[in-house]
Amino acid sequence: MRVLAVVHQDDAGPGVFARVASERGHLEVWRPYEELGPRHVEVDPDAVMVLGGAMDTYQEGEHPWLRREKQWLTGLLERGVPVLGVCLGAQLLSEAAGGSVRQTTEPEIGWREVTLSREALDDPLLGSLPERFASFQWHSFEAVPPLGSPALARSEHSLQAFRTGESAWGLQFHAEVDAPTLEGWIEGYASDADAVRLGIEPERLRAESEPEIEHWNETGRGLCERFLDFATS
User: Fold this and answer.
1) Considering only Cβ atoms within 10 Å of each terminal Cβ, which end of the chain, N or C, has fewer?
2) Annotated catalytic residue, options 87, 95, 139, 142
3) 174 tagged catalytic
4) Is the CB of residue 143 less than 8 Å from the CB of residue 172?
5) Is residue 92 within 8 Å of residue 69, measured between CB atoms?
6) Alpha-carbon gap, residue 221 to 218, rounded angstroms
7) According to the 3-state scheme, what is the secondary structure of 8-71?
8) Which domains are assigned to the chain?
9) Torsion of CA 11, 142, 168, 217, to 10 degrees
10) How confident is the model at residue 5, as a pLDDT?
11) Catalytic hit among 69, 95, 108, 176
């Protein structure tokens, strides 16, 4: 099984998803800011995971590769390649499918409750999750998927999960984040103006994360396993 992880910056990698994908087959990483296109594009991968990043989808002038990546994602959707987008990846997926992205009413950083919709009950990825669960968030924008794309989960301030087409999902919450990555984000929080404005307290966020992260990683592994199960079915 060929799994491609699209990584937009080094501190936002596939985390626990990487372990699952490596156990299931071959994991390849593409950094779109370094290359015009993923290697071996003549053969679609069996599954694609599009990860997060500090940039925003509208910053095509500063990051011209964003436009190319959206076009590439549109092609994947047209060919029915299974795609899982996380945070920025979900927003890019939304635009590639004909939707949009907008600023949230309030940035969500830290552990926030997510509630599944009725449409999620029989969803291959989210259907086995609890109706409400704590999730790790770090975003100031949200995806607005195109009409016909079911909303699968929401938090207080934003859409948290959607499905577009038959084989693509967007997750706003960071199901992939592992403990080392989370620590790096907390340590560098001051580089995010919204985190500073919200008054993020690093020690408090560490204390909140310690009892949550192991269970959260189990949730992330399960989501990735179900996504790859779908991709191979």
Assistant:
1) C
2) 87
3) yes
4) yes
5) yes
6) 5
7) CCCCCCCCHHHHHHHHHCEEEEECCCCCCCCCCCCCCCCEEEECCCCCCCCCCCCCCHHHHHHH
8) 2-232 (3.40.50.880)
9) 50
10) 96
11) 176
Catalytic residue (one of 69, 95, 174, 224): 174
Tens-digit pLDDT profile for residues 147-184: 999 999 999 999 999 999 999 999 999 999 999 999 99
What are the tokens at 228? Answer: 């790859």
Could you tell me the sign of the dihedral formed by the alpha carbons of 218, 144, 117, 119, in that order? negative
Q: What is the pLDDT of residues 115-130, one digit of tens each?
A: 999 999 999 999 999 9
Token reading at 31: 């950094």
Whether residue 63 lies in the annotated active site: no
Read off the pLDDT of each residue in 60-74 and give the average, rounded to a whole number.
95
Confidence of residue 38 (pLDDT cuts 50, 70, 90): low
pLDDT band, residue 41 (cuts 50/70/90): low
Q: How confident is the prediction for the chain on average, in pLDDT?
A: 95
170 with 145: CB under 8 angstroms? yes
Clarify whether 224 is annotated catalytic.
no
Residue with structure tokens 């990846």?
89
Q: pTM for this structure?
A: 0.95
Q: Which two tokens stand for residue 119?
A: 């449409």
